[in-house]
Design brief:
α11 runs antiparallel to α12. Helices cover 64% and strands 1% of the residues. β1 and β2 form a beta hairpin. The protein has one domain. The chain is mostly helical and 382 residues long.
């Protein structure tokens, strides 16, 4: 889920996306509003397009108690999303064994998307009810607007899952960092955003690191039937993922810009629409009966699918809470660290055997991302 990395913070005109989420209660003790004069609009972060389903708060200085609380948030994000990452690889790249000792790979990644989105929609509805905000159960935007976001979201997620059939998880993870480029291009074309030389330098280093990673060792999934000859299919799927994920994030931002919707309202209807699209596609392709038959024949996959969906949803809520409490900068730092740890864990657990040059490429990517975060933190403190 999302996910996605921070863009450089620059002042921009206020919009619903850049304001504090309406469903977060105002704290009259620490942040008393002026009696009559409204607060000036906060700056809008250029990383909005890469932060899934979330509205931003300005980064604030942390007390010792805040630091401990923020650390718990970071642990929650890293643990849930690392479990999610490893389960993706387990389900898509390792065979399951039936009671009669037959082995087979899970056939359709779209079913995983369906399971994830159903649980996410259910949890969003539960949160709305718990918060006694029943008005948010109604669609704020036309349903077609939610469906438009959902289509690109389903395509992006499915391509990401399917790419694991041909490419190793570290290759897919490092390749996902390259989505910075299409996001910047789309934002430039749609809203005329301006980026600094630092932004383009970071993108150049990230792309160079990705190229080093790809060209310096094995990138093919071990179970691939045609080995290296099928690798281009994996790269094509990654390109589609990068394109549709960039489209998804910019569409989500546009929804927040044009409609006064809550975070959970968007989560509810985008995930619900995504689930309906997944069911429609599975039924149209006659894959749904095949998936259900696989679950019946290989019941050992059920705990993995359940854990995959739970970890994805838990990670999404941990991300949302962290951004609302501490801002996008902390979130981006945690996500960058999590990606590196996921690559390391995958290489150890699934024995991909990354070469020294491949690790060099990975370090180039993560070093560039951390440099970007450092520059953003430096500028925000000036």
């Amino acid at each position: 889920m999302t996910a996605v990395l921070a863009r450089r913070h620059e002042p921009r005109p206020s919009s619903p996306l850049s304001r504090k989420p309406p469903d977060v209660p105002h704290d009259p003790v620490h942040h008393p509003p002026p009696p009559q004069t409204p607060l000036p609009p906060p700056a809008k972060s250029l990383d909005a397009s890469s932060l899934p389903l979330s509205k931003r708060r300005p980064v604030r200085s942390l007390t010792r108690r805040d630091a401990f609380h923020a650390s718990l948030c970071a642990v929650a994000i890293m643990s849930t999303l690392m479990v999610y990452s490893l389960l993706q690889e387990r389900i898509m790249t390792r065979p399951y064994t039936s009671r009669t000792s037959l082995t087979a790979f899970f056939p359709h990644s779209l079913f995983l998307v369906l399971a994830n989105r159903l649980l996410a929609a259910l949890m969003a509805a539960v949160v709305i009810l718990i918060r006694r905000e029943r008005a948010h159960l109604q669609p704020v935007a036309p349903v077609t607007e939610y469906i438009s976001v959902s289509i690109s979201n389903v395509v992006a997620t499915s391509c990401q899952y399917e790419a694991l059939k041909w490419l190793t998880f570290p290759t897919v993870t490092i390749g996902k960092c390259a989505k910075m480029l299409p996001v910047m291009l789309i934002q430039k074309m749609r809203s005329g955003r301006h980026y600094s030389y630092d932004d383009f330098a970071v993108v150049a280093v990230v792309l160079a690191g990705c190229a080093t990673m790809i060209s310096s060792g094995n990138v093919s999934a071990k179970h691939s039937s045609a080995a290296d000859t099928d690798t281009p299919v994996g790269f094509l799927l990654m390109l589609l993922y990068l394109l549709f994920d960039a489209i998804t994030s910019t569409q989500q931002e546009s929804l927040f810009d044009r409609y006064d919707m809550s975070l959970y309202n968007q989560m509810l209807y985008i995930n619900l629409s995504s689930a309906c699209i997944s069911v429609f596609a599975l039924t149209l392709s006659r894959a749904l009966p095949q998936c259900l038959a696989f679950l019946n024949r290989f019941p050992s996959i059920l705990p993995d699918i359940a854990a995959l969906s739970l970890s994805a949803v838990a990670g999404q809520f941990a991300i949302t809470y962290t951004i609302q409490m501490y801002g996008a900068l902390l979130y981006a730092a945690v996500m960058t660290t999590r990606q590196f740890c996921s690559v390391l864990a995958s290489d150890i657990i699934f024995k991909h055997g990354l070469t020294v040059l491949q690790w060099t490429g990975a370090l180039m990517v993560f070093s560039a991302l951390f440099f970007k975060l450092w520059r953003k933190a430096t500028r925000s403190s000036e």
